[in-house]
Design brief:
InterPro entries: AB_hydrolase_fold, Dienelactn_hydro. This protein is α/β, with parallel strands linked by helices. It is built from seven helices and ten strands. It has a single domain, classed as 3-Layer(aba) Sandwich (Rossmann fold).
Amino acid sequence: MQPPPLSRYLLLLVIVLLAGCSATRSSEHATQGVEQDLAAAGLREADLGAASLMRAWYRSTPEAPSVWHIYVEGDGHAWRGAGQPSSNPTPRQPVAMRLALEDPHSHVAYLARPCQFLQPLPDGCHFSLWTTQRYGADVENQMLAALNAIAGGQSVRLIGFSGGAHLAQQLAQRHPNVELLISVAGNLDDASFAEHHRLPAPRTASPPSGTIPFYSLAGGNDDIVPPALARQQLARQAHGCHHLEVHPQAEHTGPWHLDWHSIEAFLEACQ
């Protein structure tokens, strides 16, 4: 026997509320874990101003840096289902953060994406910032402001995971001293990504990286950005010295490791 309409409505409402509470708890737990891990590694939070919808952390030594290593997080928990934006984009697996924690360099920073690790979300956090407009002007401007607040005009190496690699390309067009781009399982070109996954074509073209040296990592078991797609995108986007390194056992979220000895050798060969 079917429950009366009001009962069905109340049941649906309870399910929705429980799902929302579960998502909130997951985001809060992820945020607390990230804050603890970053603090334990000596990274402190940057002051980006009250109007910012971003969080960023950095570690530095007293001496002037020769170059900053800046890590850009992926899209995070952007969708909860097909065509359904999530209520909070905080990543469950913050891959870029893990790579930042492993980096032995003296000057390291980690940029979360807008609205990630914010509890509760401020009014300005519309879901478009982590879905349809995740590479849009508002997001790019906020990311650039955070980058400039930490590194200023100093030399920068940008390391982006997944969609963070796309934003790293965008930032490289606007920061004057980017000397290296590193993509970790990155989607560098929306057009080829959409074609590969049979998605609607994007409205705007992805920006090329110009002649900045580009080091790309792809996972042999990555079904989101497989090696063939990564190779195609790198050839299309990188107009300067570039290299693709395939990790045969890696899935989209890893395991990933940056071999800085190999990366430095690549940079030296690019000179």
